[in-house]
Please model this.
Amino acid sequence: MISFSQVTKRYPGGHEALSGVNLAIEKGELVFLTGHSGAGKSTLLKLIAAIERPTSGVVSVSGQNVGRLPQRAIPYLRRNIGLIFQDHKLLFDRNVIENVVLPLDIAGFDHRESLKRARAVIDKVGLLKREKANPVSLSGGEQQRLCIARALVSRPALLLADEPTGNLDAGYAADIMTMFRDFHQVGTTLVIATHDDRAIMALGGRTLQLDHGKIGEVAA
Amino acid sequence: MIGWLRHQKHAFAAALRRLGAHPVATLLTALAMGVAISLPGGLYLGLGHLDRLAGDLPAQPEISVFLDAGASTAEKQRLAARLQQADIAEARYVPKDDALATLSAAQDLADITAGLMQNPLPDAWVVRPQTTSREELARVAADLGKLPGVAETHLDSQWAARLQAALAIGRTGVWLLAGLFAIALVAISGNAIRAQVLARRDEILVSRLIGATDRYIRRPFLYVGALQGMLGGLAAGGVLAVAGTLLRAPVEHLADLYGSAFHLLPPAATEIVVVLGLTTLFGWLGAWLSVTRALHQVEAAR
Model:
């Protein structure tokens, strides 16, 4: 589903975040990306979602050369990818359900149908009682679950999560990892950047170690 | 297609919400636009009225040739023969009785003219020469004035021609002014929209991350611009309506003093529709320019 071939990403200023990375992720796999901060985990995820373009090499998602995708095609790529951010990127001028329904509105679905789907996803992440609340009033764990709900609502085949449990205490983190395991079991491809070793131990799955922009596989 | 319509509906609703969320800002922007539009709009309406006044007057220059009261038949015949010549396009004889009748009918002066012992008006010719140049007209008038039996010649309608020329300048001025204020409208709209785009920077960035096209992001802003333009047009209508109401009584009083039934007319429905359409269009255009530019900046700043 995802393949990197000799991918290098150099930022303006000369910092090389990834150097000659090769990797292949099959459909339905659960993959953890680990490594010290600044090792290139976020960059790798950004290249998959075409938030950044590679300096050289080929990033391919579902057979598309993402790095060469024209600007106008990128929105349609992103609609098939669920993105989960460490800083949530929620919109505070609208309530919980309006945040979750946004991807469906963007994709042009019927609004009433979208609300139904959004409510189902909010229920799945345990926020149904808070659907009219403003995200500001949610705890960190709830905000993260809301971000996950928004990523899931369009039923993407691929979920990318950048430090999804980074700011959370152990209880919340375990909840969220359990949720990820459920998605994995229904066939979603997941790539999770984390340095939460307990979570990796608990869930199992493949682990890729990034070190100064180079990749190495860790035996499970 | 259904998705497209749904997007339009959403964007329109979002635009209404955004305008409604900041009623004071919306109102002030509409007012600024309204004042800008009412200037060329008011001038246009004023010129229309002057045009209507001048429309009744002959724009073609004419020479009135007044005959001596004691002119002999031979002299009259010689004049008539002269008026057959090639430099005269048309000549109309107005006997003094006809002139008196026209005068009494036209200006409600019947009671005054009825009191006259005898007709004080001379017989006259109304002559339209071939030429319209001022020098030629003066030459023809002087020529006719030298004939025996002619008391006086008067170059009549030159002032009407001058008025027409002045009105033509005025009309050009209205278009120039309208063009300038159209630019002002685009600028006002663009500025208002720019502020909104910057205020919604986070929303734009997040929307892009979850698959929004630029068109999707741009759409509500374009509706805001168009609606704002339309509100500006309506505000201009309000300004002009107030001005018209205030001016009506003094204008009618002045017309009355001239013995005219002239009064102010409201603009035609098509004119109102065209102006509203144009302000909507320019509001949209300002929004488009501004949002396209701002989106590039947001992209670059990311």
Summary: The mean pLDDT of chain B is 85. The longest strand of chain B covers residues 88-94. Residues 63-156 of chain B form a domain with the Alpha-Beta Plaits fold (CATH 3.30.70.3040).
